[in-house]
Design a protein that fits this description.
alpha/beta, 7-stranded mixed β-sheet, 4-stranded mixed β-sheet, 14 helices, about 40% helix, binds pyridoxal-5'-phosphate
């Protein structure tokens, strides 16, 4: 067996399909977000503006967050020193879990290494609690949910994206008394569209199904206290399990679920992905708790984010760029070709110092390749002007389609 040749083959396949990923090496500068330094492969440096980050509100440089992290680091040292079960449950972890349970108005919360792990660990454990479980999953659910559902080895049914009529059909096919769980997202991050939360919850009640929602792209940003779209729509109490991240709008790291005390107790007790891994560093838990707490009472940053997203969309639309607008904070510009998408991204970076990663298959379906911009409170008028002019130039240079502005 020639292992090395096998690896070459696998990598070559990605190159052939035009989906080999390259990472660019950046150094964000605290106090200067969204500006960063790009360290090029040849060792030189260029100042760039990051337009595709998921630190949606710039909380990664917020003084309250940094102070909490510094304090915890000084007080307690670097790592937690153990798994949650064996010496790794600290006051910082408990405080963060209380903060999160309160945020979502649930009895309990459990923190995980990341929201990816939270989805994988929770969804793969639910079939152990409910033998015979069928999971009904939206077809555009995040890779971590898909992975969790696979790992659970239970029956699954995929409903067409946001199609509640299809979801109903699938529910009707199942045994009335069998356990069921509907898994979906509140905001799908690649198009920025919202899940039909209320309709899904109505169906769940009608068919006695549990509900699991991923609010990763909404927590910190929607709702009076930043608890997400379900809070904004007054639906939080009807959802069984809410998943969120501490690594995106909260600007730190980690993931969680918020749920009933009993469900949390069962997941805590059965999920290998919760049990057999070192708990988050206390400083990370402290920073995340400070971020959640801050955004509970200060709506200013999420309001500014929405305003900036609105302005960017309106300006790009006015230029006739093919943007998708579902009223969320995410601004996808449709390119529809993997090579052009990569080329636009390269030109923006090299010629304009604008960093936006091309989004190609398999993150999105083929033919829907796009540039995905994430305006935030720290993307002010100056950054916005530069971006708009750069895109205007490039769209003309590359003779890309614009919408028919007369139509
Ligand atoms: C990023 C993402 C996750 C994973 O969150 P992490 O905390 O970064 O692991 C889960 N769900 C969705 C929809 C995501 O986009």
């Amino acid at each position: 067996m020639d292992y090395s040749a096998k690896i070459d083959e696998s990598l070559q396949r990605l190159h052939d399909e035009g989906r080999y990923r390259t990472f660019i090496d950046i150094e964000r500068r605290k106090g200067a977000f969204p500006h960063a330094i790009w360290r090029k492969p040849d060792g030189s440096e260029q100042e760039i503006t990051v337009w595709c980050g998921n630190d949606y509100l710039g909380m990664g440089q917020h003084p309250h967050v940094l102070e909490a992290m510094h304090d915890a680091l000084r007080a307690t040292g670097a790592g937690s020193g153990g798994t949650r079960n064996i010496s790794g449950t600290t006051v910082y972890h408990k405080a963060l879990e209380s903060e999160l349970a309160d945020l979502h108005q649930k009895e309990a919360a459990l923190i995980f290494t990341s929201a990816y792990i939270a989805n994988d660990a929770t969804l793969s454990t639910l079939p152990l609690l409910f033998p015979g479980l069928t999971i009904l999953s939206d077809e555009l659910n995040h890779a971590s949910m898909i992975q969790g559902i696979r790992h659970g080895n239970c029956a699954k049914k995929i409903w067409r994206h946001n199609d509640v009529a299809h979801l109903r059909e699938l529910l009707e096919e199942l045994d009335k008394d069998a356990p069921k769980l509907i898994a979906f997202e509140s905001i799908y991050s690649m198009d920025g569209d919202f899940g039909p939360i209320e309709e899904v919850l109505d169906l769940a009640e009608e068919f006695n199904a549990l509900t699991y929602i991923d609010e990763v792209h909404a927590v910190g940003m929607y709702g009076t206290h930043g608890a997400g779209v379900a809070e904004r729509d007054g639906l939080m109490d009807r959802i069984d399990i809410i998943n969120g991240t501490l690594g995106k709008a909260y600007g730190v790291h980690g993931g969680y679920i918020a749920t009933s005390a009993k469900m949390a107790d069962a997941i805590r007790s059965y999920a290998p992905g919760f049990i057999f891994t070192t708990s988050l560093p206390p400083a990370v838990a402290a920073g995340a708790a400070a971020s959640v707490k801050h955004l509970k009472t200060d709506p200013h940053l999420r309001e500014l984010q929405q305003t900036h997203a609105r302005i960017l969309k309106d300006r790009l639309k006015a230029m006739g760029l093919p943007i998708t607008d579902h009223g969320s904070h995410i601004v996808p510009v449709h390119v529809g070709d993997p090579v052009k998408c990569k080329m636009l991204s390269d030109l923006l970076l090299e010629n304009y110092g604008i960093y936006v990663q091309p989004i190609n298959f398999p993150t999105v379906p083929r033919g829907t390749e796009r540039l995905r911009f994430t305006p935030s409170p720290v993307h002010g008028p100056e950054e916005m002007d530069k971006l708009v002019h750069a895109l205007d130039d490039l769209w003309s240079q590359c003779a890309l389609n614009r919408a028919d502005l007369t139509g």
